[in-house]
Amino acid sequence: MDIGEVDPAHAAARVDARAGDATTEPQPLYRRSLRLGRRRYPLIGPDPRDPRLHVALVVVSLQVLGQTVLHFDISIAQILIALTTCAVIDSAIEVSRHKVITWPSSALLTGNGVAFVLRVPGTPHGDWWSVRGGWIFAAVAAVSLLSKYLIRVDGRPLFNPSNFGLVLCFLTLGSRRVEPLDFWWVRPGLALGLALALIVAGGLLLARRMKMFGLVAGFWLANAAALAVLAARGHCITARWHIGPVCGRYLWTVLVTSPEVLVFMFFMITDPKTTPRGRTARQVYGVAIALVFVALATPQRTEYATKVALLGALALVCAARPLLERLAPAAGAQARTYRVRLVAVITSLALAYTAIVAGVATIANTPSVPASASAPTDCANTASTPTLGSRPTTRAGPSPTVTVQDPINIATPISREVAQQIVHDVLDDLAIAAVAIEHRDPTLIAGVARFPWLEDLISTICGGSSPVVVPTYHFTHAIVRVARREVGQKFPEIDVDLQGDVRDATITRSNPPRRVSERQIAYRNTFVVTKAGGYWVICGNRSDRRTAACVTTT
Fold it and tell me: Long-range contacts: 413-420, Cβ < 8 Å, 24+?
């Protein structure tokens, strides 16, 4: 999302023409300057004809929509941190190198690109001045901006600045600390329609002005075709804004028409400073990005990994840009001579290195062997809030009759298959929690519970020497419903109403444990569940007001 950069030679020419020697008093033709110490620095403001202002207008408009009707989980303070970091660093470099103070158009686009995509989990919409993860926004913005000056080939940045910083951030920090903006922003409606109209209209005008139609069309068509093959093979991903896996035609629709993909297509890959100069090379450049993206996305099963694959595809193809330009000169008969060979060579290279990267990604995503469920654990040495881990072997009983209630109009209603999976996971959650209580092993519950139920279970497991109650459930009926559909990027609240009976066994904490008493009673409870680690986990009871915090931070 960076259109060009400050050209020092052009800036110096503007200074000379408008102000004469920058070390002397400005000539009458030059209107503005700023004295710092003994030197007077010419001030160069934004040029109304600069296409970067065009991009900035679109991105700022989307940020405004995000803070109002789209409910983006980012604060105004976080956006300002990214913008200010880039502007200050870029201005300092320009003053030091060229003795001019210029409007940091490119730097502000870099900061806006970082702030538009980057999210820190736990930042709620509406907390306008939250600085949660502020150091992350500052660090990513700084790395992005500096990459423009430090990683250069033939006098131009090799990587798209904001893309480089974001990819490095997501690969380094991981999904527990950061996350990208969702592919699908909000339910279909006026807000989404307005955002899509703004993106498409602004993107087409920019592509026309920058003569990038070939690049944009090449990416979109190749992306649509390659994703059609991937979707036809039954590929699925999980997403927090969707109940159940995203598969088939719906997956294709999301990844081809997603507003986030359109922003990537119109405003990130079209950066003229990091795209090839030749028309043919640009077309192949767009196709290569799409093919690399689909190749990287093939082994992924989550929205997070798929979004990183999209951003990573641009970084990889940017690294190959010098070769692409050598194979396809910008103009002339020589360019036409190389066209066929260019397509063949670049396609082969794209498939070769993406196969390697996809293989590495598959190995990296192979789950580790979970620890034994009977491994002894000392409560005193266990963190109060263990991180989400692997789920141990489950001991759930027979499945009850499942009924789906969906009174709320949502874009993705609960199917019977998804409802049965939700109930199955919740029964496993309860069974594993009972084992954890009986054996005083809090590590077992890390993969089955979220705050506040997680906190309550830890308190029960590590609660001293008093006897504990170990429940054994037998449910006959289960009702799954959407309790409340959140707007924006938040996951809908899912309720599971369980009916049946429970046998409570009171057990001492002695070694070995001794059963004190046992009773069987009718049982009915409504649990709030959410998606975590590929499973449905329990947040708590519907009657517990603390449960809302679980859904907010998912």
Answer: 413/243, 413/482, 414/243, 414/244, 414/480, 414/481, 414/482, 414/494, 415/244, 417/244, 418/243, 418/244, 419/480
